[in-house]
Design a protein that fits this description.
The chain has a domain of 68 residues: Arc Repressor Mutant, subunit A. The protein has 4 helices and 3 strands, in the order αβαααββ. It has a 3-stranded antiparallel β-sheet with strand order 1-3-2. The longest helix has 13 residues.
């Protein structure tokens, strides 16, 4: 079973090899390839906030994108611009404060 420190160290090593960075799922999958005995939930718990745990080594230019700081350019971006994922669709729901009868009274 891999420890959190092993998972974080592996993530940093993998990011050092990727100048354009990795998306969350790509990083998660790559860690599973290197540490097959690591619990997938432990991996997720260890990498979801890498930029907070090791701000001197990892930064997030966009949601879900992880890049090693050695690839950070002076302008703050590394590599090609990363498109923001589309927002989740919103469905209309009735307000719970509206008291509606199922038979339309």
């Amino acid at each position: 079973m891999a420890s959190k420190n092993e998972i974080v160290a592996t993530a940093i090593k993998l990011l050092e090899e990727q100048p354009h960075g990795l998306r969350y799922t790509q990083l998660h999958t790559a860690i599973r390839g290197v540490l097959p005995d690591a619990n997938p939930n432990s991996i997720g718990g260890a990498i979801w906030n890498l930029e907070v745990q090791v701000p001197d080594q990892v930064y997030k230019p966009a949601r879900g994108m992880y890049i090693h700081t050695k690839f950070k350019e002076a302008g703050g971006q590394a590599g090609p611009p990363v498109p923001e994922p589309p927002p989740a669709s919103r469905r209309s729901r009735r307000s719970s404060s509206t008291n509606r009868s199922p038979i339309g009274w």
